[in-house]
Design brief:
The complex is a heterodimer of chains A (about 100) and B (about 700). Chain A is an all-alpha fold. Chain A has helices at about 5-25, 30-55, 55-85. Chain A has one domain (about 5-90): Orthogonal Bundle (Helix Hairpins), CATH 1.10.287.3510. The longest helix of chain A is centred in the last third of the chain and has 32 residues, at about 55-85. Chain B has helices at about 10-25, 30-55, 85-110, 115-135, 140-155, 165-195, 200-205, 220-235, 240-245, 250-260, 265-270, 275-280, 280-305, 310-330, 330-360, 375-390, 395-410, 415-440, 460-465, 480-495, 510-515, 535, 560-585, 590-595, 600-605, 610-655, 665-689, and strands at about 60-70, 75-85. Chain B is mainly alpha-helical and about 700 residues long. Classes of the chains: A mainly alpha (about 100), B mainly alpha (about 700).
Chain lengths: ~100, ~700
């Protein structure tokens, strides 16, 4: 059986990739994908712990996260389309109307 | 017997008049304004007369309760009224003289812009003055006391566009505040030690106390503080300085408020509180000394004034000094007697002076008058009567009251008597000086050539014509102004006859009438009963001398008293002769005398530099202290600085923090990541500990 630490390290790597992408990417869609990556990193640790402790609640939680992520993707993509229609760009550095 | 006389009507009637004129008068015609003001003041006078007629059937003091005002714990103050002989006399004076002056004002103020405003204020004054006089407790009296101060302020500053009038009003108000401060502290002391301010209860709880001869105690303190209040309101040293400036107001106001009624409120208050003063000899001595000094001091200033109203103002201060001298020697009824005759003749003097000013087109400087005797005969003759009355020439009113005060003062100390006598001489001198300068000699003014003088009196020409003086410039006043003069002149002649002392074959009915109020004063006080019809006559009609009992004449015999009477008449005549010599026979002489006196004369002309002294001693340090400490130091550097600096601080902090809000989405993401990292680091640290 694969030790749980492997799963957790992979989960940490996925999460770190997500954070890095979130911070350095300029394209909104890439940022969005980075967020999904972070979520999935967390999901991985959830199921790993669920398998380790034979607790179903961890798996149930993952379904919750997936549902929320799907809803978020629907709303987020809609916002992205709307932003693109009005600003004709997906570069977040140029979406700065609220700047002081 | 407990009638309900509805005493509350007396003050409320003028208040209604004031309200009508004050709120709606702007839209009324002048006739309507005058009609409202006159009818309500006349109604108050009529009501007082009705009360006076019923007075004999009352048990005095007659106390009426209208409504509860304040109730706090055991302390209670009501809208209650206190009617006795003293307040009845005051009521008759206030409403009677007040009504006459209302009539006069219709003529005097006819051309003025704020006609309705003037009468609203005048009625308001009557309301507060009647409240003061009728009040059944010190607190209600204080309301009236403050109210007359307010009315006085409004009326002094009636021509508020004139800077001097506005500041004179302020000066009067502020100086009065100092006196009111003393009055208030006295009230607090009364509440603290007697738990009530009702006259009846205060006096009955003080009455059993013994006199504080040994040392100054509570009653002395209360007496002195009340005197501070009285000195403010009645223009005594050291708070007299507002009254001469108050002459900036219209002349009828000077007559009503600053001669006949309001300024005598202090005398009334001291007389009303005689129970306190009787048991505080030290306070009484202070009252007498202040009165005596004020009488002398103001009279000397009066000698050198050239403004006709200023002379009368200083004369008023001096006469008020007499009244306080009388109160100070515990001769309260003599003081009130002088208060009454003074209301008649000084009211008349002011009104006549107003008539003179009116005639010469607003000029107040006596050096610009002269020779007016034949041009304004009614004014001349009435003013002559008033001048003789104030100078103490028998049988005019002032003679009896002044003589009574001097005689009673002598029985306490010859010093009071001597200063009073000298003041009587000075009074006679400056009044006849005024008389000669105004009415005799050659006319020195310019009103003849300026027909449209500042006072503008186009519509009085018909009045002038009916008097047969087609002078255009100088003319007699219209009948509405002359009639009050004549009535007051009549009272100035006869007003003293109700108080003829026994030494002159009279019976001093006035003093007996007041006897029940000042028990200690008149031994046969119980007989005061038989004289209660005096109320109706108190307005000046003298009855035939009523010889019933030979009252115990204190200490000295009639012969001595007659001799003193002779001396004071002689002093009055001496003043007349001196004024005649200086201002009629040889008008150049005064200037030479003034030149030879030099510094002394200058000091008198400048009123002993008291205003300047006060300015340097109190006003300027106060302004400097307020500016540097209170304004710059506390207000600007502490209060404002606290507010400003906290605002600045918030500004600085937000200025440095606002750069976090860059609007750059990735920087926000960075902050979120950093925050999350910190939380994780913290939890890891907590976990490894």
């Amino acid at each position: 059986m694969v030790p749980i630490s492997y799963y957790l390290i992979l989960s940490g790597i996925l999460f770190a990739c997500g954070v890095t992408g979130f911070l350095i990417k300029r394209n909104i869609i890439s940022i969005f994908m980075s967020i999904e990556l972070m979520l999935n990193g967390v999901n991985l640790s959830f199921v790993a712990f669920a398998a380790q402790w034979h607790a179903l609640s961890g798996q149930v939680f993952v379904f919750f996260v997936m549902v929320v992520a799907a809803a978020e993707a629907a709303v987020g993509l809609a916002i992205i389309i709307s932003v693109y229609r009005t600003r004709e760009t997906l570069n977040v550095d140029r979406v700065d109307l609220l700047k002081l | 017997m407990t009638h309900n006389l509805h005493l509350w009507l007396i003050p409320v009637l003028p208040l209604v008049g004031a309200a009508i004129n004050g709120f709606f008068g702007k839209k009324f015609s002048r006739q309507a304004v005058a009609g409202v003001a006159l009818s309500f003041s006349a109604a108050a006078f009529a009501k007082v007369l009705v009360v006076a007629l019923q007075f004999s059937s009352l048990t005095t003091p007659h106390i009426e309760f209208l409504a509860t005002w304040i109730r706090a714990g055991s302390f209670q103050a009501d809208f209650g009224f206190y009617l006795d002989q003293l307040s009845l006399i005051m009521l008759l004076i206030v409403t009677g003289v007040g009504f006459l002056i209302h009539i006069y004002s219709v003529g005097y103020m006819w051309e003025e812009a704020g006609f309705y405003r003037f009468f609203a204020y005048l009625n308001l004054f009557l309301f507060f003055m009647l409240t003061l006089v009728l009040a059944g407790n010190y607190l209600l009296m204080f309301v009236g006391w403050e109210g007359v101060g307010l009315a006085s302020y409004l009326l002094i500053g009636f021509w508020f566009t004139k800077d001097s009038a506005a500041s004179a009003g302020k000066k009067a108000f502020i100086v009065n505040r100092i006196g009111d401060f003393g009055f208030l502290i006295a009230l607090f002391l009364l509440i603290k030690h007697f738990g009530t301010l009702n006259f009846e209860q205060v006096f009955s709880s003080i009455a059993p106390l013994s006199s504080e001869t040994a040392g100054a105690g509570l009653l002395t303190a209360i007496g002195l503080l009340l005197m501070v209040g009285a000195a403010g309101k009645s223009a005594q040293i050291p708070l007299y300085i507002w009254l001469p400036d108050a002459m900036e107001g219209p002349t009828p106001v000077s007559a009503l408020i600053h001669a006949a009624t309001m300024v005598t409120a202090g005398v009334y208050m001291v007389a009303r509180s005689h129970v306190i003063f009787d048991r505080a000899p030290a306070a009484l001595t202070v009252v007498a000394i202040i009165g005596t000094l004020t009488a002398l001091f103001a009279a000397t200033i009066g000698i050198a004034q050239t403004d006709i109203k200023k002379v009368l103002a200083y004369s008023t201060i001096s006469q008020l000094g007499y009244m306080f001298m009388a109160c100070g020697v515990a001769a309260y009824s003599a003081g009130v007697f002088h208060l009454m005759t003074h209301a008649f003749f000084k009211g008349l003097l002011f009104l006549a002076a107003g008539s003179v000013i009116h005639a010469v087109g607003g000029e107040q400087d006596m050096r610009q008058m002269g020779g007016l005797r034949t041009r304004i005969p009614w004014t001349f003759w009435t003013m002559t009567i008033a001048t003789f009355a104030i100078a103490g020439i028998p049988p005019f009113a002032g003679f009896f009251s002044k003589d009574e005060i001097l005689w009673r003062a002598y029985q306490v100390s010859w010093v009071y008597w001597f200063i009073g006598l000298f003041t009587a001489f000075l009074t006679s001198f400056y009044m006849f000086r005024l008389w000669f300068m105004t009415f005799f000699g050659e006319y020195r003014g310019t009103a003849e050539s300026h027909e449209d003088s500042p006072h503008g009196h186009g519509d009085h020409d018909d009045a002038a014509a009916t008097h047969g003086h087609g002078h255009g410039g100088i003319h007699e006043s219209p009948w509405v102004m002359v009639i009050p003069l004549v009535v007051l002149a009549f009272l100035s002649v006869t007003g003293g006859w109700i108080g003829v002392p026994r030494s002159l074959g009279g019976n001093n009915r006035f003093e007996k009438f007041l006897g029940p109020v000042f028990h200690a004063d008149v031994a046969e006080g119980a007989e005061g009963h038989g004289f209660s019809e005096m109320g109706a006559e108190g307005h000046g009609m003298a009855g035939s001398p009523n010889k019933e009992t030979e009252g115990p004449e204190p200490q000295a015999g009639h012969g001595t008293e007659l001799a003193f009477t002779g001396i004071s008449v002689f002093a009055g005549l001496l003043g007349f002769v001196l004024a005649w010599l200086l201002y009629y026979r040889d008008p150049q002489l005064p200037q030479r005398i003034a030149a030879s006196l030099g510094g002394l004369y200058q000091a008198v002309v400048h009123k002993y530099y008291v205003d300047e002294l006060y300015a340097n001693l109190f006003v300027k340090p106060l302004i400097a202290g307020s500016t540097s400490i209170l304004w710059h130091g506390i207000d600007r550097d502490v209060i404002d600085a606290t507010v400003d600096n906290s605002a600045h601080g918030a500004n600085e902090v937000s200025d440095s923090v606002r750069h976090m809000q860059s609007g750059n989405l990735r920087s926000y993401a960075g902050w979120v990541a950093a925050g999350a990292a910190m939380v994780i680091a913290y939890m890891v640290w907590m976990g490894t500990r």
